[in-house]
Each structure stands twice: as structure tokens, then as C-alpha cells.
């Protein structure tokens, strides 16, 4: 990593995935804020009797500007970054105060180990990382404090609420089905902003606020800064970045809007349950063909070449009898096949592309433990039973990854509401 370039997470990490420290925001050299617009030293805010200094704000502003991707540093950009910086610092003070309440802490040594691991993953050292921070006017301790707030907050939220989050198999399967239904469609690199309605009466004000933000975004305000300042989504910590998304992973209202957008554009406000979304489509790419590794069993009755239609129908009737008698998925295949004297073929693990038609299309349409309809081939009649399936390619997540993602999203939403409640009760003074 060259001097003046930092690979670092530019905000709060996703809950649960935070300690992996896998996100990366590339920092390019910028003139320091002091060169742009000097700020007077002093107190910028007091949070429950604890001060946030203007120096704290100035360092955070410099970091936000450097990671925003902005090509020009304008007074409007500095104003936006200052507001986002102060908002983040207030949240961090509240998080650290809550950590002290529950006697949760993380030492500088522990934080440095986390940051060193992050730097190592990006081919650098902690010393280089801190030196590059200094080049843009951000002290090592300032970044440590920011990371410490993230770490202790994650521990508090996971400890207090982690056991309450329930993701059931039907939710995971429904999410996977939506993704698989869109694997032959383009993928989009998307950023999001979600503005939450506090109640039904506040919905019109939320929508009007979203319209104002869209105007500012289209006028050139960096999406990342607006997301960090206003978004209620878990992705707010990374400037709204959702990564590469298929339409099936989005809410229906959002998917409809994204499908009509071109790269480099910002959507109109999109009303969704609970609030309003704004999305930016950064890039678009065509999908690669999806693949699947399958565990299969087959019940089959061979039909001699040249057999008449009556013979085929008798074979189909026998296969239907075994299919109807099937219980317990793959575990019951042998017993069900014996009912009509069908042969059982155990495929073990096989790639879907290694199956010929019509076997492949029949197998790909199944859920685990499900049997296909009775179908014919050149050699006889068949029933396919899917024992297990692992989807690969086209950035398709595993069931475990999807479950983790849904858990993270729910826990992050709880964390955001928890922080909002703490903020409402706090004594916050901004001179």
C-alpha cells in the first residue's frame, strides 16, 4: 500500500461481521481541513457532561472527506461532513458511556491488534496505517477511539439482544428463492439510504425530507456522507454500500426502481414499509450462469425400447404410487420404491451441469426432501428426490451465509433503535 493510501473501514462495521475487518475504503491524499477552512478550538458539543472538542470534529471531518470520493472540497461539502462528523462523535460518546455502564471495555492494545489485522489483510502494517492517517490530519488515538466505540457497542448489543433475534428456516429459504429467481438477471452495485418513519403521522415529513436529500445528492453531495449522517439502514456505517445485489434481494418496490435505473444515477424517494429509501446504482454487470452441487436419489422403472403407450402408462402409474408413498424425503426413498418395485439410483454428490435433460431441469426445481413429478426419458419413467443442495456461482450465498446476513440485519436494526432511545434520553448540548 503506497503512502497516502489507507485501506480502512470508514464507519461502523456490520454487527457480527465487524471483527472480521474485511471492508476497505481507499483514502486518497487531500489538503488538510486547516488548509481549507480553519476551525476555532474549543468545545463542539457536550454529551452527558463529556465534551467533544472541535479538534475531534476536525479530525473526523478530514477523514470523512478523504473517504467520500469527492473531487472538490467545497464549503457545502465541509458543512455536510461537519454535521455527519459531529453526529457520529455524539453516537460514539453515547456508546462508550453505555459500555462504561455495563463495564465493557477494550484496551488500546486490543484495538491495535484489530487494526493491525486489518492492515495486514491489505498488505500493510499498523505503522504505515497510522502514518497515512497522520498525513491527512487524523491522529492514531482518534481512530483508536472510533474503533473502540464500534467494538464495545457490538459486544453490548450482541450480549443484550443477540439471543432475542430469531431467523427461521422459512425466512432463509424465501430469501434464497428470491435470489435464485434472479440469477439469470443483471446484478447491481448499489448504495442505499433508509429514512425511518418514527410513526404513521411522520410519514409525510419523512418523504419530504427524502426529496430534499435526493436534490442534494443529484447536485453533487457525496452519497456516502449523506448515508452516514441520515440513513437508518445497517449499511450506514459503510456509507450505504450494499455491494453487488440481485433484484431478488431487494424489496419489491426498490427492485422495480433499480431495474429502470442506469449506472451513476440516484433514485427518486421510494416509499417502503416503515419509511423511505433512496438508492444509487453505481455499476451494473451481467450474471454468470448459476451452478449447484446436488445430492440426489432417483426412483425409476425402465421401459423397453418400442414399448406401446399402455406399457408407458403402467410404468408411470407405478412411479406415482411410489412417489405418493414417499415419506421423510431421501430417508424414505428405498421404502417408497419397494412399494411399486421401482429401482433406486443414488447419485451421491453431483454438479447440476453433469446431469442430462430432463433430469437436470427436474432436479433444479426441487427443495430439499422434495420429489419431482413423474417424468419420462428415452429409457423409462423417473422420480427425482433432492437430498441436499449447495448453490455456487453468481455470488449466490449459502444457506448459512444467508442466515447470518438476516441475523446481522435484524440485530443492526435493534442496535440502531437502542442507540436512538439512548440519544433521546441523553443531555446533549451543542454551543
Uncertain residue ranges = 1-39
Distance between the termini: 41 Å
The CATH topology of the largest domain turns out to be Triger factor/SurA peptide-binding fold
* Biggest sheet record: 5 strands, antiparallel
**Protein structure class:** alpha+beta
Number of helices: 14
Q: Your description of this structure?
A:
The strands form 4 sheets. Strands 5, 6, 7, 8 and 9 form a 5-stranded antiparallel beta sheet that branches. Strands 11-10-13-12 form a 4-stranded antiparallel beta sheet. The longest helix is centred in the N-terminal third of the chain and has 27 residues, at 75-101. The chain is of the alpha+beta class and 431 residues long. Residues 1-39 have low confidence and may be disordered. It has helices at 33-36, 54-67, 75-101, 108-121, 126-135, 140-161, 169-180, 203-218, 223-230, 252-259, 309-325, 333-339, 359-364, 399-425; strands at residues 7-8, 25-26, 43-47, 50-53, 187-196, 241-246, 265-266, 270-272, 275-285, 291-302, 343-351, 375-376, 380-392, 428-429. The protein is 45% helix and 19% strand. A hairpin with a 2-residue loop joins strand 8 and strand 9. The protein is elongated. The protein has 3 domains: 7-164, Orthogonal Bundle (Triger factor/SurA peptide-binding fold), CATH 1.10.4030; 184-288, Chitinase A, domain 3 (Roll); 291-392, Roll (Chitinase A, domain 3), CATH 3.10.50. Helix 2 (54-67) crosses helix 3 (75-101), helix 7 (169-180) packs across helix 14 (399-425) and helix 11 crosses helix 12 (333-339). It starts with 6 loop residues before the first strand and ends with a strand.
Amino acid at each position: 500500500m503506497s503512502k497516502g493510501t489507507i485501506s480502512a473501514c470508514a464507519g461502523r462495521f456490520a454487527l457480527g461481521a465487524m471483527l472480521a475487518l474485511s471492508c476497505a475504503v481507499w483514502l486518497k491524499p487531500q489538503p488538510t481541513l486547516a488548509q481549507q477552512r480553519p476551525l476555532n478550538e474549543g468545545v463542539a458539543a457536550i454529551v452527558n457532561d463529556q465534551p467533544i472538542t472541535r479538534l475531534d470534529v476536525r479530525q473526523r471531518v478530514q477523514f470523512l472527506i478523504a473517504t467520500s470520493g469527492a473531487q472538490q472540497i467545497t464549503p457545502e461539502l465541509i458543512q455536510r461532513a461537519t454535521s455527519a462528523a459531529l453526529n457520529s462523535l455524539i453516537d460514539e460518546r453515547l456508546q462508550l458511556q453505555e459500555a462504561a455502564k455495563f463495564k465493557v471495555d477494550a484496551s488500546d492494545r486490543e484495538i491495535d491488534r484489530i487494526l493491525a489485522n486489518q492492515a495486514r489483510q491489505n498488505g500493510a502494517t499498523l505503522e504505515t496505517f497510522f502514518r497515512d492517517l497522520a498525513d491527512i490530519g487524523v491522529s492514531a488515538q482518534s481512530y483508536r477511539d472510533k474503533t473502540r466505540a464500534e467494538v464495545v457497542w457490538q459486544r453490548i448489543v450482541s450480549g443484550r439482544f443477540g439471543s432475542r433475534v430469531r431467523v427461521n428456516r422459512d425466512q432463509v429459504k424465501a430469501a434464497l428463492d428470491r435470489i435464485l429467481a434472479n440469477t439469470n438477471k443483471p446484478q447491481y452495485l448499489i448504495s442505499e439510504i433508509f429514512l425511518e418513519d418514527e410513526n404513521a403521522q411522520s410519514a409525510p415529513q419523512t418523504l419530504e425530507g427524502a426529496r430534499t436529500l435526493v436534490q442534494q445528492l443529484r447536485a453533487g453531495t457525496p452519497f456516502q456522507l449523506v448515508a452516514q449522517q441520515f440513513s437508518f439502514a445497517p449499511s450506514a456505517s459503510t456509507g450505504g454500500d450494499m455491494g453487488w445485489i440481485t433484484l431478488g434481494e431487494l424489496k419489491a418496490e426498490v427492485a422495480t426502481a433499480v431495474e429502470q435505473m442506469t449506472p451513476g444515477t440516484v433514485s427518486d424517494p421510494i416509499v417502503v414499509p416503515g419509511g423511505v429509501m433512496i438508492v444509487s446504482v453505481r455499476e451494473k454487470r451481467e450474471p454468470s450462469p448459476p451452478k449447484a452441487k446436488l445430492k440426489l436419489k432417483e426412483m425409476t422403472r425402465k421401459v423397453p425400447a418400442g414399448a406401446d403407450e399402455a406399457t408407458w402408462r403402467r410404468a408411470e402409474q407405478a412411479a406415482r404410487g411410489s412417489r405418493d408413498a414417499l415419506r421423510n424425503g431421501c430417508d424414505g426413498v428405498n421404502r417408497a420404491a419397494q412399494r411399486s418395485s421401482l429401482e433406486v439410483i443414488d447419485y451421491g454428490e453431483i454438479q447440476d451441469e453433469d446431469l442430462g435433460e430432463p433430469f437436470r431441469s427436474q432436479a433444479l426445481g426441487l427443495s430439499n426432501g422434495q420429489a419431482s413429478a413423474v417424468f419420462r426419458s428415452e429409457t423409462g419413467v423417473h422420480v427425482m428426490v433432492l437430498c441436499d443442495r449447495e448453490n455456487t456461482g453468481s455470488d449466490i450465498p449459502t444457506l448459512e451465509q444467508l442466515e447470518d446476513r438476516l441475523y446481522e440485519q435484524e440485530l443492526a436494526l435493534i442496535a440502531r433503535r437502542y442507540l436512538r432511545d439512548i440519544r433521546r434520553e441523553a443531555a446533549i448540548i451543542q454551543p
